[in-house]
Design a protein that fits this description.
about 120 residues; mainly alpha; two-stranded antiparallel sheet; elongated
Length: about 120
């Protein structure tokens, strides 16, 4: 494997690194993602258990297809995808320019550098 230059490493970082843009505190995701998965699985197990209790209450034999039907459609949770670092940094630079925090020429130069890094993929 060949050694990469710092510029190439930076370009690859802008392309491949990801950032959470969901809108909540980044650190809370460490707790909330497992919590949401756990709640979904709990809902699946609970739905299955209720279906089995209903079937048994009516004196019917329980077969596998009825259990699978009880599990369908509950507990579906998916994590929203993270955005590439290049897009996140571009958005932040554009927002700084809009708010007047940074000067426009300096911002344009930075945006062009990020754009070049994203285009070379």
């Amino acid at each position: 494997m060949r050694q990469r230059s710092p510029q190439e490493k930076k370009r690859l970082s802008y392309l491949k690194d990801r950032r959470n843009v969901y809108g909540e505190n980044q650190k809370s995701s460490r707790k909330n993602i497992p919590r949401a998965r756990r709640a979904g699985h709990h809902a699946l197990r609970r739905g299955e258990q209720l279906a089995l209790e209903r079937l048994r209450a009516f004196g019917g034999a329980v077969d596998d297809s009825e259990v699978r039907f009880a599990r369908r459609g509950t507990g579906q949770w998916r994590k929203s995808g993270d955005a590439p670092l290049g897009e996140v940094v571009s958005y932040q630079l554009e927002r700084r320019a809009q708010l007047g925090i940074d000067t426009a020429p300096r911002n344009q130069e930075r945006l062009q550098r990020i754009g070049r890094a994203r285009r070379r993929s």
